[in-house]
Amino acid sequence: MAEHTVKAFDEDITRLRGLIAEMGGLAEVAIQGALDALVRGDQELAKKVVKNDKKIDALEAEVDKLSVRIIALRAPMADDLREVIAALKIAGVVERIGDYSKNIAKRVGEIDGKDRFEPLTLLPAMGEVASEMVHDVLTAYAARDPDLAREVIATDAKVDAFYNSIFRNLVSHMVENPATISSAAQLLFVARNLERIGDHATNVAEMVHYAATGEYPPDDDQ
Fold it and tell me: What is the CB-side half-sphere exposure of residue 26 using CA atoms within 13 A?
């Protein structure tokens, strides 16, 4: 009976990890799709990103149900319980990352004279770093790798640097060209959403580190 219970628990955990990985993959695609749509002014791609966010939401609901089921039926302890709780929290964070990508996609078509904005060339690079953070932190989760989780936390500084540069550029542009204030504000909103994606990937990395070690990373990693 005990062997059967252990096998069933392992299968549940494998399923839980698979759902998180699937959510993360969709979130990465959403980030890239939203930025591609923004740069190209592709309304159809933007609509696809918005529509596909429902898939991430549905997967989060599955993670919630499975996590509750594992806790209720398997009564996990110590390391196992940490893993289930981490998965529950991570799913919520990845769902928020999907929402930020959806928010970016909704800005497509709201920006006039895109060629005049230098930050539009910086945003894809910023998005690539944020997307890599999401990818790496989910790899760290799957491998229970605290060292990779700490690398993700350190990478957030690059996203913050991108945001600060874009912010200064856009504010200066708005001062010099008041007619572009509305469009510049939309780009600033996009940059802010990417910065939040980096923050959320950092939050996931902290959870991964805790699930793997039982401790949160030291403050100098944050």
Answer: 26
